Amino acid sequence: ALKVNATVTHLDLNYNIIVDVSAQHIAEVLKVNATVAKLDLSCNGIGAVGAQHIAEALKVNATVTHLDLNYNIIVDVSAQHIAEVLKVNATVAKLDLSCNGIGAVGAQHIA
């Protein structure tokens, strides 16, 4: 439904059971949706694979300005994928990765 929806600008899916497979479906939507600007996926079970799918989608998405991924299972390798997106995506202005498993290596990638 969100692939063709032209009115939803804020999608809040926090405190659900969104895991890597579910994140992949959301990523597919982000590749084609042109209205969602704020996406809250906090407090779910998104891990490295799910974060990679979201990151890949953000390489082509030009509408998401706020992405909340706090309290997931995002680790250093995921941070590397997200860092690659930040190099090419010019629309994400607010990114919350707090309370994940990102260590020194992941922080270095983000920096």
Structure commentary:
The chain is α/β, with parallel strands linked by helices and 111 residues long. 40% of the residues lie in helices and 11% in strands. α1 (20-32) runs parallel beside α2 (48-58) and α3 runs parallel beside α4 (104-110). The longest helix has 13 residues, at 20-32. The chain starts with 9 loop residues before the first strand and ends with a helix.
Q: What topology emerges from the helices and strands here?
A:
Layout: E1 10-12, H1 20-32, E2 38-40, H2 48-58, E3 66-68, H3 76-88, E4 94-96, H4 104-110
Parallel strand pairs: 1-2, 2-3, 3-4
- Which segments are poorly predicted (pLDDT under 50) over 5 or more consecutive residues? none
Q: What structural class do you assign from the helix and strand content? A: alpha/beta
Number of strands: 4
Total number of helical segments? 4
Helix percentage: 25-40%
Which series of helices and strands comes N to C? EHEHEHEH
Give the oligomer, counting copies of the same chain as homo and different chains as hetero: single chain
Largest sheet: 4 strands, parallel
Strand content: 5-15%
Mean pLDDT: 96
Shape label: globular
The value of Rg in angstroms is 13 Å
Give the structure's gist in a few sentences.
With 111 residues, this protein is of the alpha/beta class. It contains four helices and four strands.
